[in-house]
Specification:
The structure holds two protein chains of two kinds.
Chain A: E1 4-7, E2 10-13, E3 19-29, E4 34-39, E5 46-50, E6 54-55, E7 63-76, E8 86-94, E9 97-101, E10 105-109
Parallel strand pairs in A: 2-10
Antiparallel strand pairs in A: 1-3, 3-7, 4-5, 4-8, 5-6, 8-9, 8-10
Chain B: E1 3-6, E2 10-12, E3 18-25, E4 33-39, E5 46-51, E6 58-60, E7 68-73, E8 78-83, E9 92-99, E10 105-108, E11 112-116
Parallel strand pairs in B: 2-11
Antiparallel strand pairs in B: 1-3, 3-8, 4-5, 4-9, 5-6, 7-8, 9-10, 9-11
Classes of the chains: A mainly beta, B mainly beta.
């Protein structure tokens, strides 16, 4: 069973700064099946990135994803006030079909 | 446009049952698998499992067998989550979410808060 570990648990930054969030898998996974989500208080998760690096519809280009194997990164190039939220990575395993979420990284205003 | 609309919040006593609905619109219901995700208060996202819309076959994640049941009514494009023998630790927001072929969850319901309290 794949375990996703996100770091840091909490990231404190200021608007305009660059954010780098990490997601590490317990074993090598296909980047095709790695996604990222943003969740704000009281809201449903919002898809950001599919296939490790493809932005979902309507996601601004300040969000980018990268990585392969066991190490994946979500980068927000210049933080906007609305970007402060919790971010989750997610993996999909196809045989048998199952989904695993990381524990989340809270991005807070410094 | 694609929408998943869930039923409203529920307050239940321990030992009771609850049935959460997730009505899909804006796409062909049978084209995508439906997944269920739980989020306990202040906690992260937990995948509960999924249901094959074409066959009605459910798959439950570890820890979600026993008193959780996924079902469908394809005639009204609705998926259901039933939880029986509710306990306090079932208190959570429950989400339905449509799954893409590559496993991403591209559309989510608004969530249903189930509170279990005596």
């Amino acid at each position: 069973e794949i375990v996703l570990t996100q770091s840091p648990g909490t990231l404190s930054l200021s608007p305009g700064e660059r954010a780098t969030l990490s997601c590490r898998a317990s074993q090598s996974v296909s980047s095709s099946y790695l996604a990222w989500y943003q969740q704000k208080p009281g809201q449903s998760p919002r898809p950001l990135i599919y296939g490790a690096s493809s932005r979902a519809t309507g996601i601004p280009d300040r969000f980018s994803g990268s990585g392969s194997g066991t190490d994946f990164t979500l980068t927000i190039s210049r933080l906007e006030p609305e970007d402060f939220a919790v971010y989750y990575c997610q993996h999909y395993g196809s045989s048998p079909p199952r989904i695993t979420f990381g524990q989340g990284t809270r991005l807070e205003i410094k | 446009q694609v929408q998943l609309v869930q039923s409203g919040s529920e307050l239940k006593k321990p030992g009771a049952s609850v049935k959460v609905s997730c009505k899909a619109s804006g796409y062909t219901f049978t084209d995508y698998a439906m997944n269920w995700v739980r989020q306990a208060p202040g906690q992260g996202l937990e995948w509960m499992g999924w249901i094959n819309i074409n066959t009605g076959n459910p798959t439950y994640a570890q820890g979600f067998t026993g008193h959780f049941v996924f079902s469908l009514d394809t005639s009204v494009s609705t998926a259901y989550l039933q939880i029986s023998s509710l306990q306090a630790d079932d208190t959570a927001v429950y989400y339905c979410a449509r799954r893409l072929g590559a496993g991403g969850l591209d559309f989510w319901g608004q969530g249903t808060l189930v509170t279990v309290s005596s």
